[in-house]
């Protein structure tokens, strides 16, 4: 076999191998990055301010069944939420009520008492990420103070 047929055979083998190695979904046109939130304030318009101390980031998925409530609480640190499923209605002081639905991202109010309720018919699941401080709680209830 001369050099050209060997090269053609190698190129063909490479092309077949590469095509098989790429998952079908990677060949499709899709958004590689989907922006969720880009903000300098919380849901109540408070500017972001990070706590002093040794930084600690925590995350959790919170699940609430229909009719469940978080209980009145507040976050002393910046807290990000992303609604994975369902919807959550949150009551803030002054009669402010906001409903967050599946696919929405939110920077929760800092230092403001609020209560979340699942008023829907199915579970609500929320990815919660807190930018806190080592040794301090990210969520406080009035009785904790």
Radius of gyration: 24 Å
Q: Uncertain regions: pLDDT < 50 for 5+ in a row?
A: none
The level-1 CATH class of the domain at 55-144: Mainly Beta
What would the principal axes of the Cα set say about the shape?
A: globular
Q: From the 3D structure, determine the CATH topology of the domain at 55-144.
A: Jelly Rolls
Number of helices: 2
CATH architecture of the domain at 55-144: Sandwich
Distance between the termini: 83 Å
Signal peptide: 1-26
Protein name: Cupin domain-containing protein
Pfam families: Cupin_2
Domain Cupin type-2: 61-129
Q: Please, could you describe this protein's structure?
A:
- This is Cupin domain-containing protein.
- Residues 61-129 form the Cupin type-2 domain.
- Residues 1-26 form the signal peptide.
- Pfam families: Cupin_2.
- InterPro entries: Cupin_2 (IPR013096), OryJ/VirC-like (IPR047142), RmlC-like_jellyroll (IPR014710), RmlC_Cupin_sf (IPR011051).
- The protein is α+β, with helices and mostly antiparallel strands.
- The protein has a domain at 55-144: Jelly Rolls.
- Helix content is 16%, strand content 31%.
- It has 2 helices and 7 strands, in the order H-H-E-E-E-E-E-E-E.
- It has helices at 3-21, 24-27, and strands at residues 55-64, 79-85, 87-92, 96-101, 105-107, 115-117, 124-133.
- The strands form 2 sheets. Strands 1-7-2-5 form a 4-stranded antiparallel β-sheet, with no helix packed on it.
- A hairpin with a 3-residue loop joins strand 3 (87-92) and strand 4 (96-101).
- The longest helix is centred in the N-terminal third of the chain and has 19 residues, at 3-21.
- It is globular, with a radius of gyration of 24 Å.
- The protein starts with a helix and ends in a 12-residue tail after the last strand.
